[in-house]
Amino acid sequence: MRRAARAALALAGDGAARPGLGLGCGRSARLLLPPGGAAQPDPQGWREAVTAAVGALRAGGLVAVPTDTVYGVACLAQDSGAVRSIYSLKGRNGRKPLAICLGDVERLYRYCHVNVPDELLRDLLPGPVTLVLQRSEELNKDLNPFTSLVGVRIPNHPFIRELARACSGPLALTSANISSQASTLTVSEFQDLWPQLSLIIDGGPIGDIQSPECRLGSTVVDLSVSGKFTIIRPGCALTSTVEILTQKYGLIPESS
């Protein structure tokens, strides 16, 4: 196998990556994305990484993934057991909702009732924004059963978008950290979670690890009420998001 195309697998906690290790032994594995970065990914190496992640997800596992903001943990949103595993991993209040992650705007319409122009969706997605909309009947009833809303992410990161496209349904996505702790920008920062993960996709550092602003996560905005919006979390893209919603589309801000 060509060196540039090789995806190196390493048992979590074993230090340097070693090629040829599988996902067995009852321990999580770390998969290093090939050189080239998000702008120019190595096609063969990234396909291998996507294949490994899809396999882990289909087996009911949790997979750590890089996004355009912070590292996340994903599972299949339609798999109720995997959704429960994410809550257990996070030590999270069961009434704090999980977002879903999709690869493209077109797929959003299957899982949400959309009451804003398609152009608005495409002005914000893909990007560091979570849009909260009315959920449809297609979405797993065990995912956030206490609310009629759901947050939708389409990160501007080619790996997770390819992974989402390769799955038949949406991913459930949350940040790779214990609830109430700081978001993570490298895989080593959530090392305590590794034993509970099936696979860790290591895409290198995300942003400036010394900058607090890089840990803010996505801007979360509720668009479920026609003609209005509510900022639920300011996040890292607040100013640009509000400008688009107010100046281009004339939406009226409401207090959360």
TrEMBL record:
Residues 47-237 form the YrdC-like domain. One of its GO terms (biological process) is regulation of translational fidelity. It catalyses: L-threonine + hydrogencarbonate + ATP = L-threonylcarbamoyladenylate + diphosphate + H2O. It comes from the Eukaryota. Keywords: Cell membrane, Cytoplasm, Membrane, Mitochondrion, Transferase, Transit peptide. The keyword Mitochondrion applies. Pfam families: Sua5_yciO_yrdC (PF01300). One of its GO terms (molecular function) is double-stranded RNA binding. GO terms for cellular component: mitochondrion; plasma membrane. Its EC number is 2.7.7.87. It is a peripheral membrane protein. It is found in: Cell membrane; Cytoplasm; Mitochondrion. PANTHER family: SUA5, THREONYLCARBAMOYL-AMP SYNTHASE. Belongs to the SUA5 family. Interacts with RSC1A1. Cytoplasmic and mitochondrial threonylcarbamoyl-AMP synthase required for the formation of a threonylcarbamoyl group on adenosine at position 37 (t(6)A37) in tRNAs that read codons beginning with adenine. Catalyzes the conversion of L-threonine, HCO(3)(-)/CO(2) and ATP to give threonylcarbamoyl-AMP (TC-AMP) as the acyladenylate intermediate, with the release of diphosphate. Participates in t(6)A37 formation in cytoplasmic and mitochondrial tRNAs. May regulate the activity of some transporters. This is Threonylcarbamoyl-AMP synthase.
